[in-house]
Design goal:
This protein is of the alpha/beta class. It has 14 helices and 16 strands.
């Protein structure tokens, strides 16, 4: 049962007499406990809605187009609280966060509903058989953090005595036609090498219901006191990991017509190897995991250059980036400079003093590091930053400073860019 916060005027729920403050009990005879129940059972055309009002059970009937919303609004998006993670993963990034940051940054969610609705990755360790039954009944395709298919190793890596046992849910979901995107956070000397081979072999055996797999390197900050002694990938280890993945890509491509598994861009940069071409990434199924982002950016930028026109005269700007993608962004800037007379585009890699120098990605750069490393430098007329540095739909950095704070501290205008080559070139040219 969920209390109704408001009813949209003119909606099917409003037209049939449901009011703010009523409690939603059921839809077409099915008990409603959260947003998944609400969305699934309210998809029909003819809806019988069970309501509790002032202690009295009431029934209303609504008619609507299929999949149209009933028009009910609740206190939270999930109509329930988020499910917390029950693991203690040795590689958990949240455990490596600095102290005294905003409280929301320390919340660990592991909610299968958010996996379906927003693309979050879940471990399945806090689910029960009835939760899996519901996923299968509703045909919810989800994203799973697997990390390893070795039960004992999964227990060790995830700090949860049930983590190995819950692997059975991956097999059960796949066997029942649920499409799974899988993720492996790869840690040197833990789940790399032969353990990675085992994981890829086991998951490959669940085809065609494994839609894709991403292998991403572990991130290690300087805040690891009393935590498991993790290592980061060096050039040799990153190259060996790519080689293992590409062994399986060749096998999967021959068997299934798809590579299935992909290393994140960071592996190629660490191994100092050329990024693969567009064809390698197929339809970019793991883009949000940093798989193919840079190749996409490069190709879009090059295509944009072919048709771009610039008549802006002298222009000097600075693009900031993490050390990992620096060489790629620098190359793009040089391409633009050589094409357009009068353009000067500096690219500044920012050292991550906030989290530690082992963190080299752009998305974890803070305002404080931008200010300390760019202060007193001639940054030109504009500073270009990636939207990945900011909280979603905001202008707030991880250290709670804002874009405006950086603009004031550096006395420069900031332009926020998305991971899009066309938009990046437009921003560089001031268009």
């Amino acid at each position: 049962m969920v209390k109704i916060k408001s009813v949209i005027k003119g909606s099917p729920a409003c037209e049939c007499g449901i009011s703010e403050g009523d409690t939603l009990v059921s839809i077409n005879g099915h008990k409603i406990k959260d947003v998944l129940d609400y969305m699934y059972y309210a998809a029909d055309v003819n809806i019988e809605i069970g309501i509790m009002r002032n202690g009295e059970e009431m029934t209303f009937t609504a008619r609507k187009d299929e999949y149209d919303d009933l028009g009910l609004e609740f206190d939270t998006f999930l109509m329930d609280s988020k499910r917390r993670c029950s693991n203690n993963c040795v590689f958990c990034f949240i455990d490596q966060m600095p102290p005294n940051m905003r409280e929301t940054l320390y919340f660990k969610d592991d909610d299968a509903r958010l996996s379906f609705l927003q693309g979050n990755y879940v471990t399945l360790t806090n689910l029960k058989d009835e939760d899996i039954d519901r996923i299968i009944e509703m045909k919810l395709n989800i994203n799973v953090s697997v990390h390893t298919t070795n039960p004992e190793l999964r227990v060790k890596m995830m700090g949860n005595r049930f983590a190995g046992e819950k692997l059975k849910y991956i097999y059960r979901l796949a066997e029942n036609g649920i499409s799974l995107n899988c993720q492996v956070v790869c840690c040197p000397d833990l789940n790399d090498g032969d353990e990675l081979r085992r994981t890829l072999r086991d998951l490959g055996g669940l085809m065609p219901n494994i839609s894709s797999m991403a292998v991403v390197p572990v991130g290690v900050t300087k805040y690891r006191e009393n935590l498991y002694p993790l290592k980061t990938f060096d050039k040799k280890g990153a190259g060996e990991t790519i080689d293992i993945i590409e062994e399986f890509q060749a096998e999967f491509l021959e068997k299934y017509g798809t590579r299935v598994v992909f290393p994140s861009d960071e592996f190629f940069l660490t191994a100092e190897r050329e990024l693969p071409d567009m064809e390698y990434y197929e339809d970019f199924p793991q883009f949000e995991n940093g798989v193919g982002m840079l190749r996409s950016l490069i190709d879009e930028f090059e295509n944009a250059l072919d048709s771009a026109e610039y008549s802006g005269g002298e222009r000097h700007i600075t693009v900031v980036t993490g050390y990992c993608p620096y060489i790629v962004i620098k190359k793009l800037a040089e391409m633009a400079e050589s094409r357009f007379s009068g353009l000067k585009c500096d690219v500044m890699p920012i050292r991550n003093d906030f989290f530690g120098n082992t963190i080299t990605v752009t998305g974890l750069i803070t305002a404080g590091d931008l200010i300390s490393q760019l202060k007193g430098r001639d940054n030109g007329s504009e500073l270009l930053i990636s939207s990945s540095m900011l909280m979603q739909n905001s202008e707030i950095f991880l250290d709670d400073m804002t874009v405006s704070d950086v603009e004031k501290a550096l006395d420069i205008k900031i332009k926020i860019t998305q991971n899009d080559g066309y938009e990046l070139l437009d921003a560089i040219l001031g268009m």
